[in-house]
Amino acid sequence: MDIRNFCIIAHIDHGKSTLSDRMMELTGTLQKRVLKEQHLDSMDLERERGITIKLTPVRMNYKGLELNLIDTPGHTDFRYEVSRSLAACEGAILLVDASQGIQAQTLAVLYMAMEHDLKIIPVLNKIDLPAADPERVSGEVIKMLGCRKEDILQISAKDGRGVEEVLDAVIERIGPPMQVTSGQRSAVSGQHSAPSRALIFDAVMDEYRGVVIYIRVFEGEYRKGMKVHLLGSKVSFEVQDVGYFCPKYVSDDVVKEGQIGYIVTGLKTVSEARVGDTVSQREDGQPLPGYKKVQPMVFAGLYPTEADEYPRLRDSLGKLSLNDAAIDISYEHNTALGNGFRCGFLGLLHMDIIQERLEREYNCELVITAPSVLYEVKLKASRPASVVRSSILKLDEPEVALISNPSDMPDPTFIDEIREPWVKLEIVCRKQDIGPAMQLAQDRRAIYLSLEYIDADRALMHFEVPLASIVLDFFDKLKSASSGYASLSYEHLGYRVGELVKMEVLLLGEPADALSVILHRSEARSVGDKIVKQLKEVLPKQQFQIPIQAAIGGKIIARENVAAFRKDVTGYLYGGDVTRKNKLLDKQKKGKKRMKQMGKVTLSQEAFLAVLKR
After folding, report:
1. Average pLDDT for residues 293-301, to the nearest whole number?
2. Are 31 and 122 in the same domain?
3. Among 210, 288, 311, 567, which residue carries the largest CB count within 10 Å?
4. Tens digits of per-residue pLDDT, 499-549?
5. Contact 177, 186 (CB under 8 A)
6. Looking at the predicted structure, is the pLDDT value of residue 449 above 90?
7. pLDDT at position 74
8. Cα distance between residue 183 and residue 287, in whole Å
9. Nearest by Cα to 379 from 407, 399, 408
């Protein structure tokens, strides 16, 4: 079959989108006059930040063959986008920067591609740079892949040097499309006797046409007017339109076995077409192996700044969640902030992107609470039924509660143990940065596993570390410690028991739920001290003094005061007995005391950011 399905995988900023541009130019998919830099990065956010966030498919014709390319993101937070691309392809171009060499995320995506049994084509990019060292980097690739030196292609995606050889290698080395039968891949037959089956690897909401699903056809074909079924969500619909990507939608008569294309479903609700579901001609068809449900790593509360904006936020999150299967959304109410949502993200960058997309694309004004991770809390058998809501109990272990919001933490007297998520952390850095990187990791309660050298100057370190310790600012600190040369990647290991406590922040003696954090007992005092100091800087002064306290249970571990505004009530006195002055000051003191009893402190977004940037 004259089709090749492949994707480009690499670390951030190694040139995936630029290589896609050169391929589209070379194959005549787009004219040079309409082709702009990083053409497949269509989102404003992608263009501003210079990163790929969403996978983007495109069909190209080259030497009589149909090439389907999927451009993938490189950041560790968007790894699920890469895994979806891999499931739709037979091969992958592994792109490595000839000056930087192999980075942590290069290894992470390579292991994923190997798990999917994809044919890997190693390519060195940016050989035109003065700092490029193709010999050294080729040695790293040979050591990692076990390939021969002549298998490695050397290109410059910027000026187009060597790109034609990459396309030729795709045709020669990557085989034709495969079928999936009972979890195993085999070559497609070209016979369309079997009922049609396709895998949904992405979906978007079109304002005028409803839900548009991106599919890879494994069996049969799809035409306009066909009646098809989604096996996972048990929804049936008539195909409104089919076609392929160029990279915009191009309508076609049919999408056949082995091809990548789209189907306009006409569905109006976002929850019906989920990524990883199977589109089948038969209602009782056999589902294709989908994707593992993505486990969110970081949780935060999203609230509208105005209460009447809640419906808009709800609808916007619904639309966003259609083509971002990794975001986990549940309703939440907070006494200080009103109605909102508890959302699960894959990391801080993912959270940041979702926040910006909601603000820009959907005009939502948001307050975001400090992020936390998901904890497992084992409860004592003798606990009263009302200790936690039934909705947060684990289905397979009814005595274990899943807590992502510190305000949901039960009373410590009913807790048997608290487990926190741990991850396997890989850091790639220069030889001279090993000491600072190791010190930084061990300050975050990391367990050192091993150290291996990729080459004479660069090392790969392995650690096991609690996710909560690295999720906030670890990446920034690592970049600072290594002058920007280090890179990291992590994967989930499971849950382990830890000596964890809930630390509350009290304002005027009242707990501010939104500022509570769960942390390790050994870090509580230093973190509490930082938080109250930061809050002292950002909370506005009132007519009365505001005490800010950090407490664990009934024990205060840190305190700062925001001083009251001082009005000079004795300024007009011109002398006489001191009792006149004291009388006025006592009167002021009583007024301030009365105000303090009635007073309330409003939390701004700056207060949450102060906790976030501790």
Report:
1. 78
2. yes
3. 288
4. 999 998 888 888 887 788 888 988 889 889 988 888 888 887 777 788 889
5. no
6. yes
7. 59
8. 10
9. 399
Q: Which of 201, 161, 214 lies closest to 18 in space, CA to CA? A: 161
pTM for the full model? Answer: 0.71
Q: Of residues 501 and 387, which shows the higher confidence score?
A: 501
Which residue's structure tokens are 């997309």? 357
The beta-strand segments (E) located in 314-374 are: 328-334, 338-345, 366-368
Q: Note whether 51 and 120 are same-domain residues.
A: yes
Residue 361 exposed, middle or buried by CB count within 10 Å (0-12, 13-18, 19+)? middle
Residue range 6-60, pLDDT digits in tens? 888 887 777 887 888 888 888 877 665 555 554 444 445 544 555 555 567 888 8
Among 300, 291, 407, 298, which residue's Cα sits nearest to residue 358? 300
Domain with 409 in it: 376-498
Residues 132, 204 share a domain: no
CATH number for the domain spanning 102: value is: 3.40.50.300
Integer CA distances (angstroms), 343 to 32, 322, 603, 604, in order: 42, 14, 20, 20
For residues 391 and 177, what is the distance between their CA atoms, to the nearest angstrom?
44
Q: What are phi and psi for residue 225, nearest 5 degrees? A: 90, -10
State how far the Cα of 469 lies from the Cα of 471, in Å rounded to an integer: 6
Q: Do residues 257 and 220 lie in contact, with contact meaning Cβ atoms separated by under 8 Å?
A: yes
User: Do both 159 and 23 map to the same domain?
Assistant: yes
Query: Does residue 293 belong to any structural domain of this protein?
Result: no
